[in-house]
Amino acid sequence: MFGSGTPLVGAPLGGGASTPALVRAVTAAGGFGFLPAGYKTPEAVAADLAELDRTGTPCGVNLFVPEPPEIDEETFRRYAREIAAEGAPYGLDLAGAPLVHDDDHWADKIDLLVAHPVPVVSFTFGLPDAAAVAALRRAGSRLLVTVTSVAEALAARDLGVDGLVAQGTEAGGHSGTHTPRRPAPPTSTLPLVRDVAAATDLPVVAAGGVAGPDDVRDLVAAGATAVAVGTLLLRTDESGASRTHRDALADPAFTRTVLTRAFTGRPARGLHNAFIDRYEATAPLGYPELHHLTRGMRVAAAAAGHPDRVHLWAGTGYRHATTGPAADVVGRLTATL
User: Fold this and answer.
1) What is the CATH number of domain 1-66+103-230+323-337?
2) How many Å apart are CA 309 and CA 149, to the nearest integer?
3) Are 36 and 14 in contact (CB under 8 A)?
4) pTM here?
5) Chain centroid to CA 226: how far?
6) CA-CA distance, 83 to 87, in Å (whole number)?
7) Residue 336 has pLDDT above 90, yes or no
8) Is 91 exposed, middle or buried (0-12, 13-18, 19+ CB in 10 A)?
9) Is residue 85 a contact partner of residue 74, using CB atoms and an 8 Å limit?
């Protein structure tokens, strides 16, 4: 599916971590890199693609499937008031922040990828509409859907996609569940890969909890066509992750990862910190509304070196994230294949 020398995929790390330089480094080392289109304008995605085109680097692009509004004004306003003190050190009025719902420029990004096709387009948070599938197929792209259960995998197969990303509960960042209010029971990556591959007979990319070469080998043996790595790339030279995020991954004060909706209103795995402690119990579901509410605070906190107000997305293998070139990570993970 990827035409790469190894079955390693650089996961699309949103929020600036997956730079064109990181995609290029993963691909040059024998893997296949994905650009995240989430949170970016179509113009910014086009600029990233143009930069990779100039070096002849093929890549995939990941899109967030739009979700219907899940939070009412009253619930949103209550949470905004509750976390208001967290914005005060940065001059932010969180209590008065507007409720914002958007579709992340969905139609414009589909149009961009039809006009400028990439080898693979992946989708997270749900199933793309049939019109988008047809348009991208005509453009020549292969299509992947992120799934967290066999039921989601079967629905994606019936849509006619080319492959699946089986995301286990160990994965860092947002859960790709199609139903955040009714998620499937947490399933580890290895059994999820095995079950999804058996149920669908489609190529499967394994995602979640990769800490070393043994994990890659075991996932391939379980039926994965490829293995996605994300957290282990966050501290590399080519990563665009903030210094605060990079440092936290190696800080012994952060002892575990947890699933939280406190930052963005959608379940996501990250390092357990004080913001999660204070607000997880009362945080509502509501993505992307809570993402927009807390985004300014998170950006300001990262710039100020305040990790307890930052979404420190990380998978369970985060202690194995090292500094140095991304090529070293690819080489290390594939050494025993």
Assistant:
1) 3.20.20.70
2) 31
3) yes
4) 0.97
5) 16
6) 8
7) no
8) exposed
9) no
Look at strands 142-147 and 163-167 and give their pairing.
Answer: parallel
Task: Report the distance separating Cα 130 and Cα 115, nearest Å.
Answer: 18
CB atoms within 10 A of CB 102: 11
pLDDT of 1 strictly over 90? no
pLDDT tens track for 168-223:
999 999 999 999 999 999 999 999 999 999 999 999 999 999 999 999 999 999 99
What is the per-residue pLDDT across 145-167, written as a single tens digit (0 to 9) for each? 999 999 999 999 999 999 999 99
Domain range summary for the chain, segments of one domain joined by +: 1-66+103-230+323-337
Render pLDDT for 14-61 as a digit per residue (tens, 0 to 9).
999 999 999 999 999 999 999 999 999 999 999 999 999 999 999 999
The pair of structure tokens assigned to 265 is 């209103």
Q: How far apart, in Å, do the first and last CA atoms of the chain sit?
A: 18
C-alpha dihedral, 14 to 20 to 25 to 28, nearest 10°: 120
- Please report how the helices 73-82 and 289-304 are oriented relative to each other, as an axis angle in degrees rounded to 10: 20
